[in-house]
Specification:
Strand content of chain B: over 45%
Structural class of chain B: mainly beta
Distance between the termini of chain A: 38 Å
Structural class of chain A: mainly beta
Number of helices of chain A: 0
Order of helices and strands of chain B: EEEEEEEEEEE
Number of strands of chain B: 11
Shape of chain A: globular
Distance between the termini of chain B: 31 Å
Radius of gyration of chain A: 14 Å
Strand content of chain A: over 45%
Number of strands of chain A: 12
Radius of gyration of chain B: 13 Å
Helix content of chain A: under 10%
Oligomer: heterodimer
Order of helices and strands of chain A: EEEEEEEEEEEE
Largest interface: A-B, 23 and 23 residues
Number of helices of chain B: 0
Chain lengths: 116, 115
């Protein structure tokens, strides 16, 4: 079973639109961490946010905001007033314990294209 | 300059060649990783080194051979590769490997094409 599901393979928006990237995860752990990474065309993944399972408070950082809901096992990412520079592939990831050691599992990513 | 530097950026090699990918981190981190990114697939963890010791090997074929001479450098030696090994190979580092709650810092990757 897929641990991290990013159902949206590709999203295309026009600049200044708001866009939400969905992430649904599956885990049996009570303690886990969730991440979002951005991969621009240059290739390197850039860390955006880390959230632990005990902190359901939503977070806002500039135009970025994250909505963590344990009840629905979701950790969605919203970009407000999108810009062309936001075009990238965005990955959601889950850190959990498997076989006695922690594993980081990535989703397949959502490719976001922001058109001028 | 990114904290994690990978060379080369692009590599084309035949199936009988031997080549190496290099990764260097300037962040003072203790753990380094190799990931494989193929089209339409999630990132696949290949190897993990913590304090220069390999702590994880995710059933990677022996044609991929990692080497970590010190905490700042990581290599991936390649030999007798197959066309399906063509992918983006990403190096990453983190402060420690005790838990994946330490964010990963990635390099730009090496785009490998096996002909």
């Amino acid at each position: 079973a897929q641990k991290v599901t990013q159902a949206q393979t590709e999203i295309s928006v026009v600049e200044k639109e708001d866009v939400t990237l969905d992430c649904v995860y599956e885990t049996r752990d009570t303690t886990y961490y969730l991440f979002w990474y951005k991969q621009p065309p240059s290739g390197e993944l850039v860390f955006l946010i880390r959230r632990n399972s005990f902190d359901e408070q939503n977070e806002i950082s500039g135009r970025y905001s994250w909505n963590f809901q344990k009840s629905t096992s979701s950790f969605n990412f919203t970009i407000t007033a999108s810009q062309v520079v936001d075009s990238a592939v965005y990955f959601c990831a889950l850190s959990e314990v498997q076989g006695g050691s922690e594993k980081l599992v990535f989703g397949k990513g959502t490719k976001l294209t922001v058109n001028p | 300059e990114t904290g994690v530097t990978q060379t080369p950026r692009h590599l084309v090699m035949g199936m009988t060649n031997k080549k190496s990918l290099k990764c260097e981190q300037h962040l003072g981190h203790n753990a380094m990783y190799w990931y494989k990114q193929s089209a339409k697939k999630p990132l696949e963890l290949m190897f993990v080194y913590s304090l220069e010791e390999r702590v994880e090997n995710n059933s990677v074929p022996s044609r991929f051979s990692p080497e970590c001479p010190n905490s700042s450098h990581l290599f991936l030696h390649l030999h007798t590769l197959q066309p399906e090994d063509s992918a983006l190979y990403l190096c990453a580092s983190s402060q420690d490997q005790q838990g994946y709650n330490s964010p990963l810092h990635f390099g730009n990757g090496t785009r490998l094409t096996v002909t």
